[in-house]
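Look over this entry.
=====
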Amino acid sequence: MTSVQHNTIRSSFVPAALTGTISVEMDFFAVATHGKRSLAWKTVFTDSSPYRWRRARRPIVREDENIWRSAPAERVSFLVDGAAYYACLDQVLEQAEEQLWITGWDFDPRIKLRPDDPDAEALGTKLERLIAQKPRLRIRILVWAMGPIYSGKSLRLFRKQKWAAHPQIELRFASHRAFRGSHHQKLVSIDDRIAFVGGIDLTARRWDTPDHLAENELRRDPDGNPYDPVHDLQVVLEGEASRAIGDLCRSRWKSSVGEGIAAPGSTAVAWPTGVEPILTDCRIAIARTEPEFGRRRGRQEALRLTLDALRSARRHIYIENQYFASHRIGKLLGERLREADGPEIVVITTRSSHGFLEKVVMGGNRDRLIRRLKQADRYGRLRVVFPVVPAADGSEQEVIIHSKVVAIDERFLRVGSSNFNHRSEGFDTECDVAVEAASEAQSAAIAGFRNTLLAEHLDVEATEIDRLLQETGSLVAVVDRLNTRQRGLRAFDGIEDHGATALVWGTDIVDPHRPLRPFRRARALLRRWVGQLFALLSKLFASSQRRTSAIDSEINPSGNGRKK
């Protein structure tokens, strides 16, 4: 039995990001369900501002349902592109006193965190120097065992490094229990005071600036080879949320190495200078993906959180992701597009594919998903695009999207390692962090950061995005009107409205959503075949018995023993 008492409070305020006064209606509900009383708030902006949002009575972030843990953060900032992340990390590493954790898909000790500094030292050399200066410091690096091989490095590279043999540094290569699964989390934790989470590994071909110049002499791998511009994102956290990331690193270490490590004591690691916090005094939600193995159940918090966030959208869904090939996410986006009053959807993803299988399967599924969404887009609310910058010869150079971002209205922001493919939903290990606005200041911060990302791709100022969004209330209109420069966003032309929409054959092998267990399946198939064989033999035996009984009855009938 549920009863609801309803009251309405009207007030006005001026958000920091806006000018003018907005009339607000706040509906207060006292909800009594099965004898338990709880409170819920619903806020509705009554003007036509793009910052008008309706907060559902049920929050997006729900502990024990779609996240692993929620913890307060004193300060949070979003480091756009590798140059900002590496420069920030370079500064914070100097403050490490007890524990430095590095967890990643790949790791290359030869990279320089500050390639713009001619005197910059390689990362491995830097770690060796820090150890020499800090006798209490322990550095633990956990890398997916196949990551260096997939990225073209030999494991001999690490054996040749002097720093890797230091007793205060432990470098371990973690195998994945699931066949062909990977460890895809990208985490750094410094004394549980500062933590970094996102899509950027400490390896080659990740550093770039927001300019994403088609040619940049600083954008070279440790072997001196140039690489294409790449857009990525990492979050820096301070406070209890950073301790939670430290706990996750220690948990991963114990699971892979078998060694339990206690949390560090209190140290004085300070917030990096020159990094402006975008959010302060907020709660950070942490969502993981872990595949099931043996009796250990899997975790699909990241997928559940993403789906719940997409369902909650009222006006705008903004997505940046390396891949756009998830069947479940695509199905939900299609449902939202078919709604008469559903949200607009802007997706910025990568066009290029690396390798034959990725092109056929991942690229093919992306194209088929775009086709399905175009068929569902009855009201013109969809844009799926990739970014380009002008090249010296007058052509266009694609910017590789490696970021993983979901922004919902001005209410929710998720950044992490999870791609919009099937592997990230239950096969690889992933870690995302998210914030759900609990105040108008946080709502304005989320909107401002989303606008900053879009402004980078459109080569305009974020204030221009904000101005036009306030004028039109449409994120799609912003993209269409401002996408007029040489640097900008391009549509996926050439995808016909009619054609195949089902998943490409072989998706379950190349991009599985759960662990591949060929031996378990073979055993199950063998058991089924054996069971069917025994069932058939039992039927044959029973039939034979019936025939034998019938013959015996004819030869030896009951009564006088003579056939009538």
Remarks:
- The chain is about 30% helix and 25% strand.
- The radius of gyration is 28 Å.
- The longest strand covers residues 2-13.
